[in-house]
Amino acid sequence: MQRKRVLPLATLLLCAPALAGTVPAAASPAVPAAGPARPLRILLTNDDGYNAPGIRLAFARLTAAGHDVTIVAPLTNQSGAGTKGSNAPAITVRHPEPKVWAVDGSPGDSVTFGLSEVFEGKAPDLVVSGTNYGPNVAALATHSGTVGGAVAGLEAGIPAIALSTGGVAAPDPVTTINAMGPTLDFAVKLIDRLRARAGSGRLLPEGVGLNVNHPVIGADGKGTPAAVATTFQDPQPVLKSDFTDAGDGTWKVGVKVDLRTPARGGDVEAVSAGRIAISPINADWNTGPLDLAVARALLAGLRP
Question: With contact defined as beta carbons under 8 Å apart, do 104 and 75 qualify?
Fold first, then answer.
């Protein structure tokens, strides 16, 4: 899966000590001089629904930080929708209040509608998806509607950030909602870093997005992580499904966390250790050049 790759340019943007804490000199490449910060036009989406606590808190925090934020998000909960896009001949869209649009479809549908209609003629500077309830690490990211919303932005050429709050284990509702505050405090800091480095240019390199997973810290969820880790998507599945035949043509489904030893440097390892995991992502499914070379060797001489 392509989302396991770490992209050097995104790492370059994230390694500065002011954001990620003290890092060894060898791991801190030079960064461009900071330019003037500017308010951003942000399309805010999610997969939990337009009225979910995470997106409403994100709207308030990003607006308070001076940004021009517009919610274009699913009408209903679309968790697990991934990068799904609808092909129905019509779609229901509601505009219940200023700066809020609710699309009866997936996060991808919401972003596509927002870019086509709400932001028609002037694309936003950034798509922010989340903050999501629960983590989107490892294979969870592959199927995540939150990440899917960010990918829809990347497909359209817009820099995008996916935000998720929660530990790898099943999240406790109260503490996870409490932890959304620190998640968004960090998101504001991250966006400030990106726009200061970008000046009047793009916030991120072409085609690059960031998948941010903020752990729950403290018994009340309001603690601050000790560090930021630039990571890759751990290849493990995380969740295991069990099926039981009910005998009437239906099967009962049970899902549990089946956590394996985390890959070193991956997102699961970072979040499990209480660190914020930031994994660069893109919108295509290409593997790295080494994988391509292996595939060519395996397929050499194959004919139709």
Answer: yes
